[in-house]
Amino acid sequence: MAERIGQFFAELDRRGAGLLPDKYTGTVLLELTQDDVVERWTLVIDRGRVEVRRDDVEPDCLIRSPRDAFARLLAGRQGVFAAVWRNELSVEGDIALLLGPVRDLMTRVRRGGSDGGP
Predict the structure, then answer these.
(1) Can you state the angle between helices 2-14 and 67-75, rounded to 10 degrees?
(2) Where would I find the SCP2 domain in this sequence (predicted)?
(3) pLDDT at site 16
């Protein structure tokens, strides 16, 4: 589980350009929890280019999830809507960033492609 999450963010950082269409821009803070530990990952999306950071910023969208639930999303064993309905994923701010670029990134990294990008 921890390996899958680390690989996801490493792949985003490595392939930041070309993963998303230019129409996406915004800052997403993901807070992943396990027991009393909160792990924070920041995605800065600028015209489709993705940069991964570990610093706290004022996000346009804040996503909170237990680590195991987020790992299921990355593996494709659960969808975003199901996770929200089961209260395994909460969103504050611009939910369109979850439903658009974040969900796209999960799918594209899992499939190993960029759907036509470099």
Answers:
(1) 60
(2) 23-98
(3) 79
Q: What is the CATH number of the domain that holds 55?
A: 3.30.1050.10
And the tokens for 6?
């680390």
What angle (nearest 5°) sits at the alpha carbon of residue 51, between those of residues 41 and 85? 45
Cα gap 49→77, rounded to integer Å:
27
DSSP string, 24-49: --EEEEEEEEETTEEEEEEEEEETTE
Q: Which sign does the torsion angle of CA 94, 20, 50, 76 carry?
A: positive
Residue 13 belongs to some domain of the structure:
yes
pLDDT digits (tens, 9 = 90+) for 15-26: 878 789 899 999
